[in-house]
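A favour, since you know our structure tokens better than I do. Could you add the entry underneath, on a fresh line?
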Amino acid sequence: MDFQYTPEQDAFRAEVRDWLAANLDPALCVDDPKDERVAPDRETFEKRRLWQRAMYAGGWVGVAWPTEYGGRGAGLLEQVIFDEEYTNAHAPVLPGYSGIALCGPTLMHWGSDEQKERFLKRILNGDDVWCQGYSEPGAGSDLAGLQTRAVAEGDDFIINGQKVWTSGAQYADWIFMLVRTDPDAPKHRGISYMLVNMKTPGVTVRPLVLMNGHAHFNEVFFEDVRVPKANLVGPLNQGWKVAMTTLMFERAYAGVGNYDDQIGRLMELSQQVHIAGSPAWEQSWVRQKLVQFRIESQALKYTRLRGLTKLLKGLPPGPEGSMLKLCGSELGIDIAAFASELLAGAAITEQATEIVPDAPRWFNRVLSARQYTIAGGTSEIQKNIMGERVLGLPKG
């Protein structure tokens, strides 16, 4: 692997950094953007939508998207460079992230010319914000067990059913979703992939408030929702193939995470927080934990690079996405547990203190970390994928 950046790529990084420094309002920044990937309220959402539009006008949304779809037409490494600088700037996750990272790339592969023309540029500009309708109350890890039905009627489908854990549905204009169109077919075959306007009569969104007070998950109900057949993506009853394309992008996105900032901050705090009258850093177990976190974070970094190498060579993605998803989410839990030990009450009261002014950040980490072992495919599912695809174990 040769990851020496070219002079042109170094110049691109400097351009990104300079543009963000000149245009990013510090009021938009958040400590851990991934933990607040959905805006906490409508006002914040609209501010972030305006920010996405400003970024799009500057050529910074869809960096690696083809120019014909409104993107910058840059290479994969340029997208990686941009993502690194954007994360380092503590910029917020864009409200259109589901469309940019998941629905848009899926439409490029499977969408009709009319669908591409209708949706892709609007995704980048934030005109259409999307959410994902996969999981159901009885179909989470076993996604193919979904029961939401779509019945053909003239030029439309009539949808009835329910989705759950739908991030950002309360703000979304559209939902890309899986529905069962042939109840008699084997469960992986009778599924179709559809695009549904959230303003359609019969669509109801009910937020789910989490224990940290956030409400970025939702239940979404569909009661006799009429959807044009033109909104079917890919062949009828073959939506599982389309869904797997989206999941490929989702797991790559879910695995993208850099814990270096959190680890570095905990190292700073360990010098300031005292245990038995001395700085916590003087405790060997504290040093060992933090160094182990740094080692695991570096391992994740090189796993990402290994996956990137495949893509740069034009090879299909391998199991690296599942490795990143599993190991990254589990590392997040370990870091949160350590933070609660190190910071004690400051990590569980959501009140800033003189020693730990960013206590609310760690409160959120402690309460939120577990969700990443579930969302986007549970840790158990990722272990199954690696067991079968990497170790060659028989299916359980």
About this structure: The chain has three domains: 7-95, 130-235, 257-389.
